[in-house]
Structures are given as structure tokens and as C-alpha cells.
Design brief:
Shape of chain A: rod-shaped
Helix content of chain B: 40-55%
Shape of chain B: globular
Largest sheet of chain A: 2 strands, antiparallel
Low-confidence stretches of chain B: none
Number of helices of chain B: 14
Low-confidence stretches of chain A: none
Oligomer: heterodimer
Distance between the termini of chain B: 36 Å
Mean pLDDT of chain A: 78
Strand order of the largest sheet of chain B: 3-4-2-5-1-6-7-8
Strand content of chain B: 15-25%
Order of helices and strands of chain A: HHEEH
Chain lengths: 96, 271
């Protein structure tokens, strides 16, 4: 490398530092959120499953972030016949 | 009171095994009873760095599965009688390690040694999580380079979430060991500085190991760097780091441009 190249070369370490700071701020946040969603998924599943039999594959938990608010979406698919059966059981119990 | 230390990094090739061997030997030189344990099942190398590759008969998996006694598997160092090695298996799969098996081995090691240093495999999978699982403290090895720092950040997250220490609600003791540090490149703005890495990772600094040709020479010969050339800059950095692990307050020696220039001008022995 000639003298001109040596003088012209810009320091790259500050770029590395800035890229890392931005990236890690994002990754730390999303790692926390992934954990939170996994925990919510498990607890919601357990709470609902105490009353209605559900297929764990048919439970979806997601979180969307907007500018001012975060939306937690929990989508649980329940087989209609299962609900009917559960109501019948309850009704039978009540009738006794 | 014995201490279990995991040497980990996430990224491969940053110097975990070199650091495990060097810290183990430095602690043994101080008079402590030390065991270094290779958790890199299938890709073991600690035996080679320690110069004990032809003495491995039984390994960690044999002991964890109850096929061999710990005594049969521990290899006593020929230079330092209070330093022992427990090798990883070269032929088995990493799935052969179970949490229960590892816990039994660690418990037994804990009762016999002052320091147990676990050399973690790279990555964040089973081998790495088992290596850190029962640790009391962690040495996070990083190079001043973007991918290494990012992976270290990830590993710090795992240390705070997936270890027994963290699950009990305790705080995992973490130390940063910055290796392959080149003060010349830092001065020219080509390499992240100590301050940069510390600011990003925000865990306490255990030591700065300069990039130095003696490290390769030591590994060629199968001798931990602190035994191979105790006067070399990396050996002194590891010796100081070992002292700090024992709670001794040693002033931090930041490799400077002058010392690295002196080394270049007057040959490797000058530094």
C-alpha cells in the first residue's frame, strides 16, 4: 500500500462498534420477547386445557408491536363437538 | 471451597481451549488442585493442547455413563502433579451426554479439586449448555471482532437463563477474556478496543491476551502457554487472569503499541 492509500484509509473499528450496538439492542429485545411468548403460550394452554380439551398444535400466540401499543394475540381453535360434549356433561351434572 | 468455571464463547476458534489449558496450568502453578474437562464431544482438542493425546484411555462419557471410575479417566499432568485432565470422547455423539451423568461427574470433581475448568464446545447446543449447566462462574472468551462479540452476547444471555445458578435465582459470575488483541491495529482504528467491547458486553474484564506467535508455538508442542514460555506476554496475561479468578486484585495490563513494536524490533523474547 502506498502512502496515499495509508492516509486515505478510514478507521473501520467505529463502524464495527456502531453496527454491533444497533444489532445487539435489537437482538436482546427480541430474545426477551421470544421467551415471554413461549411462557404465555404454555400458561394459556394449561389454563384453557383445565376446562376444555384442546390440541396444542392449534394454539397460536403472537405479539405485534406498533408505534404506541403492543397487541397480544391468542388464537385457540376448539373442536365444536368437544364443546357440545362439555356442555352436555355440565347440564347432566346440574340436572342430578 | 471449590469452584466450577466454564470457558465459553459461542463462536468457534476464539481461544477457548488455549485459555482453558492456560488458566488451568496457571492456577495449578499457584498450588491449587485443578481439573480441566473437555466437553467438546466428537471434536476433542484439550488433550492435544495439554500434550496428553496419547494418554487418553477413558473419557467424560465413560465416567458419566458409569463405565469407568473418575480415577481411571483423570490424566495427571506430567509437569504439574496437581493438574488433571478429563478428556472428551472422540468417537461418541454429543447426545451420549445426559444432564444427570454430567451432574454426577461434576459433583465428584467438586469434592476433589479446588478448580474445575470446563472447556465448552462452540455453538449453543447441548454440549455447550451442559458445559455451563453446573458452573459457578463463566469465562467468556471473545476476540475484538464483530461476529465473536455478537456470539458472546448471546452466550451471556444463556448463562443468565439456562444455568442451575440462574434458575435458582442467583447471579452467574461472568468474566470477559479478550483474546487475539492486537494493540497496533487498535491504535490504527482497525480493531475494536477493550473499551468498545466492554461497553457493548458490559461484564467485568478478566484479562486481555495479546495476539502473539508464542501461542501457536505452545500448541505445536502440546504445552499450555504459561508453561511453555512464562515470560511471554500472553502467558503473563493468563497468569494475571488466574490470579483475578482467585479474587486477587491485579492491575490490568492493557497491551500497548510500544510493547508490540518492541517485540517486532527486538524479536519475540523482548516482550
Amino acid at each position: 500500500m502506498n502512502l496515499f492509500g495509508l492516509l486515505n484509509r478510514r478507521a473501520t473499528a467505529p463502524v464495527a462498534r456502531e453496527r454491533l450496538q444497533i444489532l445487539l439492542a435489537h437482538e436482546r429485545k427480541s430474545a426477551y420477547q421470544a421467551d415471554l411468548i413461549a411462557v404465555l403460550h404454555k400458561e394459556v394452554l394449561n389454563a384453557v386445557a383445565r376446562h376444555i380439551p384442546i390440541d396444542p398444535q392449534k394454539v397460536e400466540v403472537s405479539m405485534h408491536r406498533r408505534d404506541m401499543t403492543s397487541v397480544l394475540e391468542i388464537d385457540i381453535t376448539i373442536e365444536p363437538c368437544v364443546v357440545d360434549e362439555k356442555f352436555r356433561e355440565r347440564a347432566a351434572l346440574a340436572a342430578q | 471451597m471449590s469452584k466450577i468455571i466454564v470457558v465459553t464463547s459461542g463462536k468457534g476458534g476464539v481461544g477457548k481451549t488455549t485459555s482453558t489449558a492456560a488458566l488451568g496450568a496457571a492456577l495449578a502453578l499457584e498450588g491449587h488442585k485443578v481439573a480441566v474437562v473437555d466437553f467438546d464431544v466428537g471434536l476433542r482438542n484439550l488433550d492435544l493442547i495439554m500434550g496428553a493425546e496419547r494418554r487418553v484411555v477413558f473419557d467424560l462419557i465413560n465416567v458419566a455413563q458409569g463405565d469407568a471410575k473418575l480415577n481411571q479417566a483423570l490424566i495427571r499432568d506430567k509437569r504439574l502433579p496437581n493438574l488433571s485432565l478429563l478428556a472428551a470422547s472422540q468417537t461418541r455423539d454429543k447426545d451420549a451426554l445426559t444432564e444427570e451423568g454430567v451432574e454426577r461427574v461434576i459433583d465428584e470433581l467438586r469434592s476433589r479439586f479446588d478448580f474445575v475448568i470446563c472447556d465448552s464446545p462452540a455453538g449453543i447446543e447441548r454440549g455447550a449448555t451442559l458445559a455451563m449447566r453446573f458452573a459457578d462462574a463463566a469465562v467468556v472468551v471473545a476476540n475484538p471482532e464483530v461476529s465473536s462479540v455478537r456470539d458472546s452476547d448471546r452466550i451471556i444471555g444463556l448463562l443468565d437463563a439456562k444455568t442451575c445458578q440462574a434458575e435458582k435465582g442467583g447471579r452467574m459470575e461472568k468474566h470477559l477474556l479478550l483474546t487475539r488483541y492486537d494493540p497496533g491495529r487498535v491504535a490504527r482504528g482497525e480493531m475494536l478496543s477493550v473499551e468498545d467491547v466492554l461497553e457493548i458486553l458490559s461484564i467485568p474484564l478478566l484479562g486481555i491476551v495479546p495476539d502473539n506467535e508464542e501461542v501457536l508455538r505452545a500448541s505445536n508442542l502440546g504445552s499450555p502457554i504459561v508453561l511453555h514460555n512464562a515470560a511471554s506476554a500472553p502467558a503473563r496475561a493468563y497468569t494475571d487472569a488466574a490470579q483475578r479468578l482467585c479474587g486477587v486484585n491485579v492491575p490490568m495490563n492493557v497491551p500497548s503499541l510500544q510493547t508490540s513494536l518492541l517485540r517486532k524490533l527486538f524479536g519475540r523474547r523482548a516482550a
